[in-house]
Amino acid sequence: MEEAQERAGAGGTDARSGTALELLVHGVGGTTPAEMLDDPRTVRITGDHVAAVFRRTEDADAESRPEDYRGRPVPEAYVWCNLTSGNGTRALWLLLLPFMVVNIAHWMRPAAHGRIRTIRLYGLLLRLAGLTLTVLLVAAACEVALDLVAWQCAGTRACAERHSWLGFLSPVTSDGGWWSTPGRRLALAAAVPAALTGLLWYLSLRTWRAYESRQPMDHGADAEEDPRRAALGRPGFWYGRRLVARLRAAHTAAGLLTVAVAVGLPAARFDRRPGGPALLDALGWVLLGALAAGSVAVVAVVCRRGRSERRLDRTLDEHLVRRLPLAALLLFVLTLLYGGWTRPSWTSEGRLAGDAAFGGIALVQGLLVIALAVVAHLLHRSRPDARAAIRGLGGPAVAMLACALGGVMSGGVAQRVADWMDGTGAFLVGPPVLLTWQASVIPPLLVVVLLMCAVLARHTLRLARAERDAVERDHPGETGDPGRTRRIALTRAMATLTDRAPVLVAITSAATLLLGAGALVGALMTEKVPGEAARGTYAVVQGAAQTAQDLGSWLIGLGFILFVTWGRRAYKDASARRTIGILWDVGTFWPRAAHPFAPPCYAERAVPDLTWRMATWTRATGGRLVISGHSQGSVLAAAASWQLEPSARKRVALLTYGSPLERLYGRWFPAHFGPDALASLHEEVDCWRNLHRRTDPIGGPMRLPGDAGPAVDRAPLKDPLTYGRTELHPLPAPILGHSDYQADPAFAEERGRLLARLRPGVPAPRHTGGAEAPVPAADDATGDC
C-alpha cells in the first residue's frame, strides 16, 4: 500500500493524465466505506481512525495502472462520521447546547459589502452574548452549590438533619465545627462551580488542539488580495486558533471571577455593617475592586479582537492566554481566604444575592439581543435578500433562543435541586424569584408554540390535498391508487415544513423576548413567586399563576431529563441520530467564533482534509475530479472547493444531491451561502449539477439567477420512481425522500455527464454541444454546465 502511494506521489504527470477521480462525501448520520463504494473489500488510502479516504482494494494502486481507468474513474470515499459521533459520553455535549446556538447566530449575519464597522459590531455583540451565557452557567452552579446547599440547607437545622452528609457543615449538628461558619461553607462549596469552569477549560483546550490547531493549506499571499474571494474561500477561515485561545482565556477567567464574587460579596456585605472589623472591611473593598478590574479586563479581551480570515494567523497571544486565567485563579484563591476568615457572629439567613445577579444577566442579554436586531436590520437593508430567513433577523432570533435555553437549563437545575433538598417547601427559602418566574412563562410559551404547530398542521393537510392532483399528473396513464396518492402528497407537503421554519423561529423568539421581559419585571416589582404575587387578585388570575408556576417547574425537570436521555440515545441509535443530526451537524459545522466552550467544529478538520486531497490529486495527475456530496457532505464539498486555488478549482466538477446549500444554509447564513456566494462557486468550478426531490425535507434547488439556475439544477426527480406495479418493479417502490439518490437513474446520468468532461488538457467550455458528452441529455435535464 505504501509503495503504491509513493508511486502515486512520485510518478510523472503524463503517465496518469487520463485518470479521473470520483470523490464521494457522505451526509448526516454517516455510513461505511463498503456502503459508499458498494464493495465489502475496502482499504484506507490516507487519514486516521477519525476521518479518512477509502478505496476498493482493487483500486488501491490505481495511479500506477492508468491504462485500466481510461473509461472509468477511480472511486474514493471520504468518511467523516467519527468527527460528529462517538460513545454515549458524547451526549454530554448537548449540555453545551446554548453555547452552540449562540455560536450559530454569529454566522447568520446578513450579506453586506463595505460596512466593516457594522459587521464587526455584529460579531462583538454576539461575543458578549456568549460571555453572558458562560457567566449564567457558572452562576447557576453557584446558586445550587453555594446558595441552596451551603448557605440555606446547611444553615437550617431541619434541612441539615434531613441530609446527613451535610452534618459537618451545619453549626448545630457539628456543634460549631470548623467548616460550619458561613464563609467557610461558601469557600468549600465554591469547588463545584470552579471545577465546572476547569472542566469547560479542559474540554475547550483539548478540542482546540485537535481541531483549531490543525493548519489548513496555505495559499500564499496572492489569495489575501482578492476582494472577490468568497468568505469560505479565505485562507484563514478554517483556522481559528488565535481567537478561540483568547476567548477560552477570557471565558475561563469570567467563570472563576463569577465564583469569586459569589463567595466574596456576602462576606464583604457582612463586614460593612456598623461596628464591623475595619481591616476586613478594607480588604473586602480592595478585593471587590480587584474583581471589578478583572471583569473589565475580561470584557476588554472579548471586545478587542474578532476573527482573522484573510490570512493564516499563526501567532498566539501566549502571555494573555496564560496570565489572564492565572490572575483570575489568584483572585479566586484570595477571595476564598478572605471569605473563610473567622467571623464569630456571622449566620446565614435568607438567600444570597441571586435575584440581583440573575436579573442583571437577563437584562443584559435582552439589551444585547435588541441591539443585535438593530444591527442586523441595518445590514440587511443595505443589501436586501428576499430569501434570507426572517428578513435578516435570523441571528438575533437564534441568539434570543440561546439565551432562553441557558435560562431554562439554569432555572431547571436550581429548581430541581431545591425540590430535592426541601420537597415540602417548609425549610428553605428556595432559588431566586426570577428563576421561578422564568419557569412559569414556559407553559404560555408552549401554548404559543402548540398553536403555531396546529396552524402549520392545518396548512400542511390542505397542501397535501392540493398535491394529490399533481401526483396523478406526474404519473399519467397509470391506474390510480388513492391510498398511495395520499401518502406521496402528504410526504411532499410535509417536506415543505422546512421552508416555514423561519416563521416558527421568529414567533417563538419574539414571544420568548416578551415573556422573559414580563418575568423580569414581575420578579423585580413583586419580589415574590408568581403564585404568591397573585394572591388577593381574581380567582382565575391566582389559579392561572399558581398553575403556571407548578407546571413550569415540572416541565423544566421533565424536559431536562428527556434532553439528556434523547442525547445519549442519539449516539447509540442510528435512527435517532439522523433525527437530530441535521441540526447538530449544522451547529458544529461552523468555527467557534462567539463561544470557546461550544462543541468543536468538525469542518476545521474535514474541509482541510478534502482540500488537501483534491489539490494533491489535481497537482499529481494533472487530471480532473468529480466531488460528489450528499446532504451535509455537499456543504463540505462546496467549502473545500472554495478553499482550492483557482487553477485547481477549474479542474473540479461538483455533483450535489439532497443538498441544503441554498434551502438551509443560503437562507439562514446569507453572508456565506447567499446567492452571490453560490453564483461565484458555479462560475469558478468546471461544472456543477444538483439533484433534488420534492419529497426531500432537507435538500432543494440552488435557485441561481438567470442561466445559472437551469445549468446547475436538474428538474425535481420522481419519487417514488414508479407509481404502481410494473414488469420491472413488481413490488411497490418506496418513497425515498432524502435518501438513496444514487438509486435514481438520473444520478448515473449526471455523473456520466460530468465524468465525460474529465479528459486531459484544457477544461471543456462551460456551454458545449451535445456531441461532447457521450451520455445523452434526459428530457427533464434543463441545462448543461
Automatic annotation (TrEMBL):
UniProt xrefs under SUPFAM superfamilies: alpha/beta-Hydrolases
Keyword Transferase included in the entry's annotation: no
Keywords: Membrane, Transmembrane, Transmembrane helix
Transmembrane segments: 121-141, 186-205, 249-270, 282-303, 324-341, 361-380, 392-414, 434-457, 501-525, 551-568
Annotated InterPro entries: AB_hydrolase_fold (IPR029058)
Domain of life: Bacteria
Chain intervals for the UniProt region annotation (Disordered): 761-785
Name this protein carries in UniProt: Integral membrane protein
